[in-house]
Specification:
By secondary structure, this protein is mostly helical. It contains 14 helices and no strands. Helix 3 runs parallel beside helix 5, helix 5 runs parallel beside helix 7 and helix 12 packs across helix 14.
Length: 257
Amino acid sequence: MLAKCADRGYQKSVRVLMMGAALLLTACQSAPVDENSAITSSLHQAALAAERTNDYQTAIDQYQKLLKRDIDDMDVLIALARNLRYSGDSTNAIKILEKLGPEKNIPTPFRLELAKSKIAAGKARSAIRHLNLALKSDPDNWEIYSTLGIAHDLDGDYATAGKAYEQARIRSEDNPAILNNMAISAALSGDIEGAISLLQSAPRLARHSPQIRQNLAFFYGIKGDMKSARSLSKMDLDEEEVQANLAIYSRFRKKKF
């Protein structure tokens, strides 16, 4: 009887030890997972912070590290390409997207970034092909139409660009980005008055955009209205920058932009 009790006591002790070992093993296994998540989160935060402050090289470095940790993370791949494009390296942005991107069931954000990178690289017609494919799966996306307008502008087809912008505007009325692109398109086609009119009539919220103000200043400068150009320029730039911009406007005007 004592032997049996001792045996049961021994077995119970073994079970307790085994359970303790299992718990310890689980804890040891979970630590790297938690650590891995913390590292990934830290890299994401560093990448986003760098991108927000226009420190694109740091953002690129962080996104590259993230992509090495998970080669199939589509969001990271797109973010890496975007920051390469922002840094002026659209060629490598295209290469990495085409090398690591999906071959089927291609999501809209991927096609959009690939098209934008191709536009930045001067490959308008290739961008147009990707954007038209994106429209088939996402026909109400204003950003696709707006980007398509930019691509057609780059290709010199201002009429088709205008139609694309109008479709974008229907889907996102009073969007500053669309209005800005439409004005640039009008200026590229030689309609400086139309470009000025578009930005002058933009909603108040849109006119608060520094980019729109400075583009409007640019168009005024090309027109020869240096007083209006200076007034707008001074809202966002210091005197040295204002003078530099006015000199650029004068050169464009002499070339009959």
